[in-house]
Amino acid sequence: MNLQQLQQQIKNNALANFYVVTGDEESLIQRAQHEFKQLIQPENRDMNYAQFDLTVEALDDVINEAMSMPFFGDRRVVVVQNPDFLTAKGKISPQDQDQFVKLLEKSVAENIVVIFINDLKIDKRKKITKALLKRAENIELPALSETQAKQMIMQELQQRAYKIDQDALQDLTLRTNAHYTAMKNELPKLIAYATHSKNITSEAVAALVPKTLTANVFDLVDAVMTHQPKKALMIYRDLLQNGEPALRVNAVLTGQFRLLLQIAGLKGTEQDMGKQLSSHPYRVKLARQMLKQYSLTSLRDSYLGMIGIEVKLKSTNQDPALLFERFILKNTA
């Protein structure tokens, strides 16, 4: 089930008693939370809407709430975040497990329990997980594709009577790695900037939208592989000046070289590769475009060079920034 199907269930008053929400698109997850919260009128939320974070609250509190009848209302909504008890390492007492299974089997007809699994790695072999997945409706909210993200951004702008130039939309996509939530989060300042013209330009995007670390690392890898030491050092030093730790830059860059090598050895669509590598299809698309320009031997050597830096960082006290600069100079010579 997707978000539109949930909205249709709400419209038809055909809601289930249990839902699990999976996915990693933050904006869509927030919209799902909003839809469930809106089921309870604002004046009744203190009594009939409850939200639990199981990193700090107990599962038996959730069970007690879900077993209680609505208080002067038609329904009660119970939202659960971070259900660690469904994971391989998460623990649950025998008593809580028995009570939770009883709740699933004999739920209060007026109550709706929504468990936001999001991108948590649950253990489907567990008895408690099997019981939940058997009874609950599953709402899947995966990351949007590049095309879907662009369409959603354009629709949101059109609703506000704004336009965005195609080159500006493409630059926004590049700077955010086609991550819909990141794109959406940049809209308020772009809209404010274009208040008078109602048109968002590439100049506005360049001035207001910073590149993500991953986007900068794409540029950094390209500068290393195309032998541009000045550009590589400039990007790297800018990252450090903007507060990125050298160790983190090193880790992301190593991961980018690894991704390129992995994609070089795979076949299939960007979506299929993205699933195999647990990476956004847009990253796969950019990586495939970059691979057309690079020597696989040089790419492998660069990856091994990054691994060498990692070994030195773990075994010596050498300055990570100095090691990184030596790597760039050596590989772009």
TrEMBL record:
One Pfam family hit: DNA_pol3_delta_C
InterPro entries for this protein: DNA_pol3_clamp-load_cplx_C, DNA_pol3_delta-like_C, DNA_pol3_delta_N, DNA_polIII_delta, P-loop_NTPase
GO MF entries: DNA-directed DNA polymerase activity
Domain spans labelled DNA polymerase III delta N-terminal: 19-139
SUPFAM superfamilies assigned: P-loop containing nucleoside triphosphate hydrolases (SSF52540), post-AAA+ oligomerization domain-like (SSF48019)
Catalytic reactions on record: DNA(n) + a 2'-deoxyribonucleoside 5'-triphosphate = DNA(n+1) + diphosphate
DNA polymerase III delta subunit-like C-terminal domain ranges (all copies): 215-330
Alphabetical UniProt keywords: DNA replication, DNA-directed DNA polymerase, Nucleotidyltransferase, Transferase
UniProt-listed Enzyme Commission number(s): 2.7.7.7
Family, similarity comment: Belongs to the DNA polymerase HolA subunit family.
PANTHER family, A to Z: DNA POLYMERASE III SUBUNIT DELTA
Protein name per Swiss-Prot or TrEMBL: DNA polymerase III subunit delta
Lineage, opening ranks: Bacteria, Bacillati, Bacillota, Bacilli, Lactobacillales
